[in-house]
Fold this sequence. Notes:
This protein is an alpha/beta fold. It has helices spanning 8-25, 34-48, 52-59, 62-92, 96-101, 106-122, 143-152, 163-176, 192-199, 215-228, 253-258, and strands at 132-136, 155-160, 182-186, 204-207, 234-239, 261-267, 276-282. The longest helix is centred in the N-terminal third of the chain and has 31 residues, at 62-92.
Amino acid sequence: MLNVTVTPDRDSLCHHILGLYERLRAQVDLAPSPVVDALFGDLVSACAHAESMEAAAVLADPRIHRVRAELVRLCAEGESLLENVWARKALAAADPGAETAAFPYFGNYEQLARLELHALAAAGHRPETTRRVCFIGGGPLPLTALLLSRILAAEVTVVDRDADAVDLSRRLLDRLAPARRISVITADAESAADMARAVAGHDVVVVAALVGSTRMQKRAVLRAVGAAVEPGAYVVIRTADGLRSLLYPVVDVRDVYDAGLAPEVVVHPFGEVINSVLVARRRCRRPTVRAGRRRGPG
């Protein structure tokens, strides 16, 4: 059993998060509604604004530890339903562009896209060299694909394993960006064969935070992507840190290495952006060093 020192602030935050968890579990469904939106908004605020030491103490609490995986699952379900509803609203609107821009987290998507581009630059990526970008886990509302297409002026491939999400995304993109080079395909991120088909020839691959909700699933995704990307290609992996790991799955850096990828930059934001960003590259074959010979001084 974990040995944790209880402090009033830590205990208060634990009770608050556990209360939100129980109320979310009690909902008939997690489709957008005033109650569901308020509960998720409160949860995001509590997780995003906790101090680092406070967050560490909360995560070490056995009560939080027991519900952590289920809380991430609830958040994933709520986000999926929210995007599905909003994609349909945008499709039905006279001005789908304005309706899409009114999505409550549109600003967060913009900030995250900028953060990812800065992280890529820190890893040595030059935006003007980007020809093709693959976004894995696009869902029914392909906001990231639209933003990357506009910013990088590159061809974008959106990948999702859910056929309904792919259909919604295609129809929405036909109305939002008919002239842009954005395609949407059905593929399973855990399938090596599917990833070989989906990411071939892409300079940058972005793996959405909700692609794989458990470590085993994340490991399978990373291995499939790592085997499929070309040497030198950049892989942007969305993850989470601190209490934000109650909202999104965490990517273990050891699994990134095991997938044949070399982590180069990790960014953990403290503001309104919830996801952390890890940038890796496909490792080239290591040069063979003959026994008895040394490189460099010493």
